[in-house]
Sequence to fold (203 residues):
Amino acid sequence: MSQTTTGITTLTGTACPLDQANVDTDQIIPKQFLTSVSRAGFGKHLFHDWRYLDLEEKEPNPEFVLNKPEHKGAAVLLARENFGCGSSREHAPWALSDFGFKAVIATSFADIFYGNCMNNQLLPIALSSSEMDVLFAAVANDASAVISIDLPAQTVSVGDTSMSFDIAEHHKNNLVKGLDAIGQTLELTDDIESFEAKQPVWL
Fold:
């Protein structure tokens, strides 16, 4: 994975194939772990109900894809449609990032989850179902297959196949510059101060 000091330009790494639709935020990070306002430490509990056979998280489920040794260290999570549906908890992208994922590529995303990803430098990419089939097939054929993402060019590549994805210009700008919603506002500090200076004192 390569990344600028201020944001994302390109990402390169292996992928973990979670071939499921409608993965909700309650599965991504269950409610009992929402005990901190810090963004760190949630990766341990990512997909808790699927990753572990016990409540104490001491017995990993060997059948769950994240626990398979060939997908250890993956930087990209692959999924199907409506990823991140359910509650609006921002802890979901926190958990994915803390676990080590830099991007999630899926057929579609829940709107609030998508926005939360943008504010937390986790790149969500939506591709068509047939394009997702290509990525899943590539990883099934070779777990070490490298997924390359070029954010400025808006492309995802695996092997000799390259696919384009859509992203709003302001979202791309924020990710490349490493900005959240507050940081985006602070880019307009001069304009804000100029506007305030022109207002009557009583305002």
